[in-house]
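Checklist before submission:
- one chain only
- standard amino acids only
- sequence pasted in full

Submission:
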Amino acid sequence: MKKYDICTFGSITFDHFIQPEELQHIKNEHSESFVVEIGQKIKFKTVTKMVGGGSANSSVGFAKMGLKTACFGCIGDDENGHLIAHRLVKKKVCIDFIQVKKKALSSSSIIFMLQNGRRTVFNETTVAPSYNGLDINDLNTQAIYLGHISKSETNLFGKIIKWKTDDKILGWNPGKTQFQEGFDSFKNFFPIIDILILNYEEASLFTGIQSEKIWLENSGALTLWKNSNIVKIYDCRKIAKKFIDAGIKNLIITDGKNGAQAFSNEGEHIFAPLIDDDIKPLSTLGAGDSFSVGAVSAKIKNKSLSEMMLWGSLNSASVIKIFGAQEGLLSEKEILKQTKNIILKSKGA
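Returned file contents:
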């Protein structure tokens, strides 16, 4: 039986990236949008076509870290599905467990890219896996990374609870379906999670707790390195307490250009600002997946919470500088090399 360092579960899609022109840009205090006039012919350029989805993106990231990785999910028996399988194999990801639905189209997305790296995603889910016959204990894996799981896959949670032991690692980046089900629906699942990763909006939605921004110096967080541009962060302590009290061992809440906060059940509260103020994102797509890959990989390597934050920050910073969710992913060797530079800067600050 093959042994894996980590198995990833979640969505697998084929993504089409386009950059529309002649858009009306509307921005106010509460929202930002672009408007397309009905009946008009809008010019655009096709930027690229790529494999996407949380399970695919994370599996490629973990494989790049040198971990033996298997990807779980579902594709159609179509041209896009064949391309997805080919590209994952090329990235050294095991696809033996990916389900292929006959006479079905693979799930896909059309992603509208703005020139500042922001994007809007139009997604069509056409296929979803069934895990009724899966015995996770037969996988022989050290870790599992769980992304967004659709309603048809919810039996997976119970299977993972039976699989989890103290010597195995579980990382979770839940999605919209889980937030809709509500916090209390996962009271039996929270205690087995080693690392939960959410952005601020998701954490607030999941817990039902709204936070205000406070001065960084009043947050009580240990700041890993200096960043003069960040002076206020969300006060996530009440949100964190709800998760930690529910049994979460480590919680990371990201907030884009405003950095990320981490909390542990041992009382740690850590703030990681942006690695580099001068980074101009070419695309923010994949920033969340790459951060998760860095943080969970560090956990698998038995690193501290501070190092988990650093690995996640470095991986994410690398990805947003290059177009595509997978192109800028770092290897462990690259992470360790850059870690030395960050530590030197931190000591000299």
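Reviewer check: The mean pLDDT is 88.
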